Amino acid sequence: MEDITQLLQREIDQASTVQGTVITPPGAYQIGALFLKSNVHLIVSEDTILYGSQELADYPEVDNRVAGINMKWPAAMINVFHAENVMISGKGKLDGRGETWWQTFWGTDEVSGMMADYAKKGLRWAADYDCKRPRNILVYESQQVTIKDISSVQSGFWNTQITYSHHILIDGITIDNGKGPSTDGIDIDSCEEVTIQNAYISCNDDNISIKAGRGAEALAQQRSCRKITIKDCQLGYGSGIAIGSETSGGIEEIKIQKVVFEQTGAGFRIKSANNRGGFIRKVTASDLTMKDVGFPFLLQTNWYPDYSYPELPADYEEEIPDYWHKLMAQPAVPVGPAKVCDITIENVQATKTGQQSVRAFFIEASPAEPIRNLTLKNLFIHADEFGKIAGVENLRMVETIVTALAPTLNQNDVYER
């Protein structure tokens, strides 16, 4: 397969001098990392498939934030760095050929590989950071960026990541990923004024994730994620729309409207941990349709302890990278989980038609830091279990009907993604 990375990069560099457009040639080609410049419009033509190189060296390491930590990480297939007025569009396809990277993480049998090795050493929390994998699209420290209509599949890691950026439009894209580890659909991290609309997203982790960093570093940076709108989207396989678990910089003014969830593991999620701090506030989710969603409403402020509280085994003597220190560093003053307040969920139809087990509610917060001012209005839910609601101050349930005939079982208190 012909590699056209250098050809396209030359055209991009030339187009940036004249506010130009680059159109990919028809056919199937391989690329490594491409870097778009300000005032460039890249059109991935309908009859083009761009396959990601399977050599990690073709994705140079760049400054980035990965799962809440600033560190070096391989570039994506298509990158927008420190740029403005950029557009990526077209009906073509980006195929990251992610199986290579997935097998490195969890082996060909999905139970071995780096994750299993790290788990045996008591280092499960570090595997996601040490197993470096390319993404399909990355926007970093940029503004006025539009991503429209393209198709993204088989990303090695997150499909589309938007970090430290503002005034971003993601419109009409299709993400249909395989079952690789950490293949989130779209991750919005410490950004402002972002709209995601008319998208179809199916993946093997959060369909859409809204983040703001983790730990002492993010608390010091105080780069919040705010004014995010998600509307008119359809979500397939995956873990729904997640706010958190990286909350240290603060997340606010989130609007989720007219979204269809079909067979997602979870629907609307909030997740934090006892050392995250920050806040989640002023969130409205309305006009949601959920079909066979395992956990329609999953709000946990002490999410996934094995991942959230890293520490070295007592007998560990090897040298560790700087980002491990960041992960283990604790704030000078204990901060607790994110302060969650002013959450409104309204106009929801959640139905069960298949064999998948459905729990209407799984809401858990600490009595010391409860979720405050949670309004559930005009919900119709058909589930197996009612579930649990604990650690909520000022819960309002208005015009809500729940059908749940089975008893709530403690053994179903687990959802680790």
Describe the structure.
It holds the Pfam family Glyco_hydro_28. With 417 residues, the protein is mainly beta. It has 7 helices and 32 strands. The protein has one domain: Pectate Lyase C-like (3 Solenoid), CATH 2.160.20. It has a 19-stranded parallel beta sheet that branches. It has an 11-stranded parallel beta sheet with strand order 3-8-11-14-17-20-22-24-26-28-30. A hairpin with a 2-residue loop joins strand 6 and strand 7. The longest helix has 11 residues. The radius of gyration is 21 Å and the shape is globular. The mean pLDDT is 95.
| Number of discrete helical segments | 7
Query: What does the average pLDDT come to?
Result: 95
Number of domains: 1
Cα shape: globular
Coarse structural class: mainly beta
Helix content: 10-25%
Write a concise keyword list for the protein shown above:
hydrolase; Pectate Lyase C-like; glycosidase; 19-stranded parallel beta sheet; 417 residues; eleven-stranded parallel beta sheet; mainly beta; 45% strand; Polygalacturonase; globular
Secondary-structure blueprint:
Layout lengths: L4 H11 L5 E3 L3 E5 L2 E3 L4 E3 L4 E5 L8 E6 L2 E6 L3 E4 L2 E6 L3 E3 L3 H8 L6 H8 L3 H7 L6 E4 L2 E6 L2 E3 L6 E4 L2 E6 L2 E3 L9 E4 L2 E6 L2 E3 L5 E4 L3 H7 L3 E11 L5 E3 L7 E12 L3 E6 L7 E13 L3 E6 L4 H4 L13 H7 L10 E13 L7 E6 L6 E13 L1 E6 L1 E7 L2 E4 L13
Parallel strand pairs: 1-4, 2-5, 3-8, 4-9, 5-10, 8-11, 9-12, 10-13, 11-14, 12-15, 13-16, 14-17, 15-18, 16-19, 17-20, 18-21, 19-21, 20-22, 21-23, 22-24, 23-25, 24-26, 25-27, 26-28, 27-29, 28-30, 29-31, 29-32
Antiparallel strand pairs: 6-7
Helix pairs in contact: 2-3, 3-4
